[in-house]
Structures are given as structure tokens and as C-alpha cells.
Amino acid sequence: MIREFSSADILFIVSAVRWTLILSVIAFLGGAIGGLAVALARTAQGRLRRRIAAGFIQVFQGTPLLMQLFLVYFGLAVLGLPIDPLLAAAVALTLHASAYLGEIWRGAIEAVPPGQTEAAVALSLSYRDRMRHVVLPQAMRLATAPTVGFLVQLIKGTSLASIIGFTELTRAGQIINNATFKPFLVFGTVAALYFVLCWPLSLLARHMEARMRLAITR
Amino acid sequence: MTEHAIIMRAVNKYYGAYHALVDIDLTVSRGERIVICGPSGSGKSTLIRTINQLEPIESGTIVVDGVELTAGGDNVARVRQDVGMVFQSFNLFPHMTVLENCVLAPMKTRKIPRAEAEATARKYLERVRIPEQADKYPAQLSGGQQQRVAIARALCMKPRIMLFDEPTSALDPEMVKEVLDTMIDLAREGMTMLCVTHEMEFARAVADRVIFMDKGVIVEENAPAEFFGNPKNERLQNFLGQIA
């Protein structure tokens, strides 16, 4: 039965935004922790750690996100774990974000002038203090814009979780479209909602970048 | 406590196949002020950077204040606490104020409480004659002021030895003097100093010994009067002729 596109349908789609947001937040926070570990390993002294991190990045940057979602989703079953779309999507997107953020932050860490590390070493600061107080704060300034840019990519990337049956924004749209068959209206609404999520982030990135620059050069 | 601040024995350093330091033997007494000069690529910066192991060495031994750098353990960390370094490009932390630059290492490495670290920092900023800049960011200061902050930052760790790696080379001519004056003050207070510099006025004024390096070798070393007045090695004579 094809029925009319009603306000209840819009409400259904809008309320699915929260799952897109939850998935994005989990993947971003997980990816931030994983990405920091990857970036630190990539810039570490030890060759083995650098190689392992590089391999991890290559694998996740060199395969489609959709395949990563499939592999994790069906991999859960192979491992005897319950097949849960949210868990699978969260794990896959976290790994994906770890690889990309790791690479972005590696670049930012390496862009901090070597003299900064030398001065910190000469002051006998430990690796931890050097990173925490000297290198990472400066790398963060360089990484802010590309990080928020990636977050926008990540939010849009969560739409792929619809394919493994997780009811986030895109899947909610599909469900309503199947019932109402108003694809242009339905997916236009869905796209507009993604835009509402992503656009302010792009503005925020630009604002943060400008403010950071001001704080340094003044 | 040994009477020698630094003892280097048969130190060799390579960059790949390039032999940057060749069998360096150097003994520095406590309170001694040494100026190291030589053409670029002669190994003079590399030499002082081995003393706090910013550059690891391939062979030989370095003993700083009775602690053998090459013996492993936490010796390198201990030596770095007692050896301050000033760089050609200042290397201040641009995201921190002058005061924060000065208190970071004492608070983190020496575990000194903030209030005490700040008091010490203000004292040294006074000594380098820029106490009023404490709350500014490095980018707001002139090159000469930044280098004086860098000196104060190193002094805040209360080092027993100070290394200067071409501290005035990146400065505009009118700012060289203010940095040299600060270094002269420090020398007069009895700090053990090793300075890589081409400022021969400075060498004449404060150095106990001037060392000339070429191709990774210490070619000649002498008291300033003899070094400048009666250079023996031909390469040194050429060098002095070029920079005079």
C-alpha cells in the first residue's frame, strides 16, 4: 500500500537524526583515541611500531568503507558475537576514523618544526611532557581544519551503515520512501538534514582556525 | 663533584658515510668559557650538540659533571637537566607566553611548584632585562628579545653548563649586542660556557680558550690573545683573514 507523505513521516526521519549523531560521536571519539595512538606510533622512534601503524593506515585508506562495514558486520558472526548493526557500524567507523585521523595528525605532528622538539629535549622534558605540552598543542592548531573536515566526511559516511540495516537517517528515509514512494521529497529531506548537520561544522572549522591563528601571531 | 665540567675522549660522529667529528678530545674545566669557531660544516655545532646528546655519537666517551653520557640508564636525562642550551633559531614555544616558556621544564622535570618556578622565572627575566615581557607571546617580541627569553628559559633549570649554538647568527645586526651583553654578564658570573659563534669581539672579551675546528677536527686551541695574535695553523690564518 502506498500512502501519503505525512508529518509523522517527517518526524520519523528527523528523529532518526539522533542515530546518525550517536554513531558519528562514537566513531569520532573512538577514532580520536585510535588516531592519536596511530599518529604517535607513526612518528615514534621504533621502526616496528611505525610499520604496523603505516600498514593499518594503508589497509583502511585502501579499501572502501562499505567493505569495512561488511567485514566487521559478518566478522562479528564468525567470532561468535551477536550480529548487532550498531556495534558493527561503530567498530567499523571507529577503525576507519582511526586510520584517517592518524594520518592527518601524523602530518600535523611532523609539521611542527624540529627545533621545538630539540628545545624540549634540551630542557630534559620527557617524551610525554614534550608531546603533551609542546608538540601536540602546536600540531592541534595545524590539524583543526582537516580534522573537522574529516568529521563532516564521517557524518556523511555513517549513511553506509544503512546497508547493514542500522536505522539511522538514510535508512529511515528508505523506510519512508518504501511506504510513500515519494523519493525526491523523502531523500531531499534526508539530504537537507545532513546539510544542517555538516554545514555549521564547516563554519566552526573556519572560525577555530582563524581564532587559533590570531592567538599565535597577534 | 669533579673539577672537570666536560671530558670528551676520542669522540667520533658520522652522518651516514660523512665523518662529522673525528677523534675529538676536549676537556673543559668548571667555570671555563670556551668559544668554538670554524667554517660552516666544520662540526662545531655538532660538537656542542653531542654534549647533551641532541646528536648521538658512534664512539668515544663523554663525561659531563662526573656523569658518563654514554653509560646508559637515565644518565642522559640527568645531564640534560644540568646543561642549558640556546639555539640559533631561539626555539621558543610559540603557543606559550614568555613566563610559561620559562616555567614549563622546571615544573615538569624538576617538579618545582608553580609559584616558586614563576618567581625564579621573573628573576631571570629581570637578569636578561625583559621582566615586562613576561606575559607576551614570543611572536610579539623582537629577535633579540626572543633570544634573551631563550637564555632565561635555559637558566630557569639552574644549569651548571650553558651551550650556545650560534646564538646571534639569526639576529639583525642591531640586536646582536643586547644578546652578547647578556652572555657576557653570564660569563662574568662564572657560568661554564661553550659558545659556537663568529663574534670575535665576544671571544676576546670573555673566552678563556678559543677553539678552531675544520672538517670535524680541532685544529687549534689557545687563549684569545695567542689565538688571534699568533695563529699557527694555515687554515686558521685564512679563516681569521676572511672574517676580520
UniProtKB/TrEMBL annotation, chain A:
Keywords assigned: Cell membrane, Membrane, Transmembrane, Transmembrane helix, Transport
GO cellular component: ATP-binding cassette (ABC) transporter complex
Residue span, ABC transmembrane type-1 domain: 17-205
Membrane topology of this protein: Multi-pass membrane protein
One BP term from GO: amino acid transport
GO molecular function per UniProt: transmembrane transporter activity
InterPro entries to which the protein is assigned, alphabetical: AA_ABC_transptr_permease_3TM, ArtM/GltK/GlnP/TcyL/YhdX-like, MetI-like, MetI-like_sf
Transmembrane regions listed in the UniProt entry: 20-40, 184-205
Domain of life: Bacteria
Compartment(s): Cell inner membrane; Cell membrane
Stretches assigned to coiled coil: none
Similarity comment: Belongs to the binding-protein-dependent transport system permease family. HisMQ subfamily.
PANTHER family: BLR6398 PROTEIN (PTHR30614:SF34), MEMBRANE COMPONENT OF AMINO ACID ABC TRANSPORTER (PTHR30614)
Protein name in the entry: Amino acid ABC transporter membrane protein 2 (PAAT family)
Organism taxonomic ancestry: Bacteria, Pseudomonadati, Pseudomonadota, Alphaproteobacteria, Rhodobacterales
TrEMBL record, chain B:
Domain ABC transporter: 6-240
UniProt keyword rRNA-binding, yes or no: no
InterPro entries referenced in this protein's UniProt entry, alphabetically: AAA+_ATPase (IPR003593), ABC_ATPase_HisP-typ (IPR030679), ABC_transporter-like_ATP-bd (IPR003439), ABC_transporter-like_CS (IPR017871), MetN_ABC_transporter-like (IPR050086), P-loop_NTPase (IPR027417)
A Pfam cross-reference name: ABC_tran
Signal sequence segment: none
UniProt family annotation: Belongs to the ABC transporter superfamily.
Full protein name: Polar amino acid transport system ATP-binding protein
Species this protein is from: Paracoccus versutus
